[in-house]
Design a protein that fits this description.
Number of strands: 21
Enzyme class: transferase
Helix content: 40-55%
Shape: elongated
Number of helices: 23
Pfam families: Glycogen_syn (PF05693)
Function: Transfers the glycosyl residue from UDP-Glc to the non-reducing end of alpha-1,4-glucan.
Radius of gyration: 29 Å
Distance between the termini: 56 Å
GO cellular component, one term: cytoplasm
Structural class: alpha/beta
GO molecular function, one term: alpha-1,4-glucan glucosyltransferase (UDP-glucose donor) activity
Largest sheet: 9 strands, mixed
């Protein structure tokens, strides 16, 4: 038996381990989320990427619970029979009592088991379950809130399923982790029924926090001043807020994804998180060390092809001295930092023009919005580019044949006669076809709300119209990227690899998967100290900018100061030589180990052990330990000069090829890489919310 098993944290092999590992064969682990097999937002990425690491550790005792959607079931799930007797009985019992429960393997890495509930099939029981929720926590759900009603059905089915499982668990202890308020009613009802389960509730962003930030309130400066009930009521989400808050307080362990969200949750939900569980990714290393650099060059060439077509007739800049920047995500103009980014681009354009720089910056906004269809002028540009390519190839073949014949005869061809009049006519017609009377469009699609669109309105205000004298060009692509697109036929990952810098100056970003994905692909990025990712990197990297992570201060600076800082980062990046960018990408890619679930999964492991000790204190207990910290675990400042590649550059934005060969003479990549590999193995302990960072107010609104 497991009675009295002692748990304590130590460091073993460079990663946190438990002195007495719990045998997973005596436990069942469930994760409950609305985004299991159902892609809606970032939680889908969390669960999908973490599944392999968790399945490798827990084997057949790990299960995911989510909603059933026919299309997702057909394309993502392989149906099978449960191998666990308790799970099989629970599925069978619920199906016999008027529910529709599906079981199978999710066809992703790790192939975890999934239990999916058909929400619509069980809607007949909604009124009864509303009564159960009212009796459990006095929260009522209005009939017109379809989403909240669906979440109640989902939660009620989850609680029913967990009751059936625990009734036949044969002595196995059950751990259940609930993600976000959508899964929270299952936690509330399970605790109301006093089910023998250990519960963890994870919030990836507070419900009210999203609403307040979207309304441009002075959020971080007034965290302790908001009348929570009043704010939730005015936005007609009071019942949802109550469901979320009840879930938080019912859980044995409360976790969140970042330090900044922990501070937010403490004020919004009135409970301090027990553990911070950062989000990770499945990091795949290439067998060839610099393969990611080769991919960058390959996909950059494809972006250059698009730019050639988009700017036809105005292609008076050198594509080899052109940098590609991008911002991507939900179209939340202020929350995602598109407002401050555009203002910084205006200032960057002024600096590059003032210094007569030969560097051009092309910026992509990948933010889905309502459109009618592709912009005709944009489609025409790609057609013109293709026509020119075909013309050049036909002339080249004709030229090559004449040259070949002349060489066979032992003659040096007369270059004045090798191209006849027809060839010159074809080339002149091709040149005339590239003439255009208008400026290159700033958007690739016809926007439905062109006059009120925030990005386009700001572009009109700051005057970035892709003119010939502009050193910063802007392209709004209001649609998700796809390899089947006739305009820019690239998947998101391919596009990111082809860019030079991702810019995400978010005001509200509980974690931030976009800069994390850039890091894993070896692409530098800009983030902020109001994003979970930015706080995480500040904590783990001594000089983030040297590793290609630029962190804008949006918390303790005014909006204008933050904008100036972002402009400084962008201008410094433009001043880098090609070699410096290569060095920086190497360093950025090495940070990917920090974001690997094989490392970050230990934070979830810590939360599970803690919830077991609280749910079953007579069987599991944790020995007292000092407050966990990550002190002493940091990537050091690189020893090469300059520490940040833009640091020692002269005012001229572009270095010569000769300078590339001799700069950073002290840079030894192998030595740096080996030191970083050893550093990530340094002992450290898992962390909760730092005690000294509980109340950090007085921030400016950004």
């Amino acid at each position: 038996m497991l009675r009295g098993r002692s748990l304590s944290v130590t460091s073993l092999g460079g990663l946190p381990r438990w002195e007495a590992q719990l045998p997973v064969e005596d436990l069942l682990l469930f994760e409950v989320a609305w985004e299991v097999t159902n892609k809606v937002g970032g939680i889908y990425t969390v669960i999908q990427t973490k599944a392999k690491t968790t399945a490798d550790e827990w084997g057949d005792n790990y299960f995911l619970i989510g909603p059933y959607f026919e299309h997702n079931m057909k394309t993502q799930v392989e149906q099978c029979k449960p191998v666990n007797d308790a799970i099989g009985r629970a599925v069978s019992t619920m199906n016999k009592h008027g529910c529709q429960v599906h079981f199978g393997r999710w066809l992703i890495e790790g192939s975890p088991y999934v239990v999916l509930f058909d929400i619509g099939y069980s809607a007949w029981n909604l009124d009864k379950w509303k009564g159960d929720l009212w009796e459990a926590c006095s929260v009522g759900i209005p009939y017109h809130d379809q989403e909240a009603n669906d979440m109640l059905i989902f939660g009620s089915l989850t609680a029913w399923f967990l009751k059936e499982v625990t009734d036949h668990a044969d002595g196995k202890h059950v751990i259940v982790q609930f993600h976000e308020w959508q899964a929270g009613t299952g936690l509330i009802l399970s605790r109301a029924q006093k089910l023998p389960i250990a519960t963890v509730f994870t919030t990836h962003a507070t419900l009210l926090g999203r609403y307040l930030c979207a309304a441009n309130t002075d959020f971080y400066n007034h965290l302790d001043k908001f009348n929570i009930d009043k704010e939730a009521g005015e936005r007609q989400i009071y019942h949802r807020y109550c469901m979320e808050r009840a879930s938080v307080h019912c859980a044995h362990v409360f976790t969140t994804v970042s330090e900044i969200t922990a501070i937010e949750a403490e004020h919004m939900l009135k409970r301090k998180p027990d553990v911070i569980t950062p989000n990770g990714l499945n990091v795949k290393k290439f067998s060839a060390v610099h393969e990611f650099q080769n991919l960058h060059a390959m996909y950059k060439a494809r972006i250059q092809d698009f730019v050639r077509g988009h700017f036809y007739g105005h292609l008076d800049f050198d594509l080899e001295k052109t940098l590609f920047l991008f911002i991507a995500g939900r179209y939340e103009f202020s929350n995602k930092g598109a407002d401050i980014f555009l203002e910084s681009l205006s200032r960057l354009n002024f600096l590059l023009r003032m210094h007569k720089s030969d560097v051009t910056v092309v910026v992509f906004f990948i933010m889905p919005a309502k459109t009618n269809n592709f912009n005709v002028e944009t489609l025409k540009g790609q057609a013109v580019r293709k026509q020119l390519w075909d013309t050049a190839h036909s002339v080249k073949e004709k030229f090559g044949k004449k040259l070949y014949d002349a060489l066979l005869r032992g003659e040096i061809p007369d270059m004045n006669t090798i191209l006849d009049r027809d060839d010159l006519t074809i080339m002149k017609r091709a040149i005339f076809s590239t003439q255009r009377q208008s400026l290159p469009p700033v958007t690739t699609h016809n926007m439905i709300d062109d006059s009120t669109d925030p990005i386009l309105s700001t572009i009109r205000r700051i005057g970035l119209f892709n003119g010939r004298t502009d050193r910063v060009k802007v392209i709004l692509h209001p649609e998700f990227l796809s390899s089947t697109s006739p305009l820019l036929p690239m998947d998101y990952e391919e596009f990111v690899r082809g860019c030079h810098l991702g810019v995400f100056p978010s005001y509200y970003e509980p974690w931030g998967y976009t800069p994390a994905e850039c890091t894993v692909m070896g692409i530098p990025s800009v983030t902020t100290n109001l994003s979970g990712f930015g706080c995480f990197m500040q904590e783990h990297v001594a000089d983030p900018a040297a590793y290609g992570i630029y962190i804008v201060d949006r918390r303790f600076c005014s909006l204008d100061d933050s904008c100036n800082q972002l402009t400084k980062f962008l201008y410094g990046f433009c001043k880098q030589s090609r070699r410096q960018r290569i060095i920086q990408r190497n360093r950025t890619e090495r940070l990917s180990d920090l974001l690997d679930w094989r490392y970050l999964g230990r934070y979830y492991q810590h939360a599970r052990h803690l919830t077991l000790s609280r749910a079953f204190p007579d069987k599991f207990h944790m020995e007292p330990t000092s407050p966990p910290t990550t002190e002493g675990f940091k990537y050091p400042r690189p020893s090469s000069v300059p520490p940040s590649p833009s640091g020692s550059q002269v005012s001229s934005p572009q270095s010569s090829d000769g300078e590339d060969e001799h700069e950073d003479d002290r840079y030894d990549e192998e030595e740096e890489a080996e030191r970083d590999r050893l550093n990530i193995k340094s002992p450290f302990t898992l962390g909760r919310v730092p005690h000294g960072k509980k109340k950090l107010h007085g921030e400016y609104k950004n």
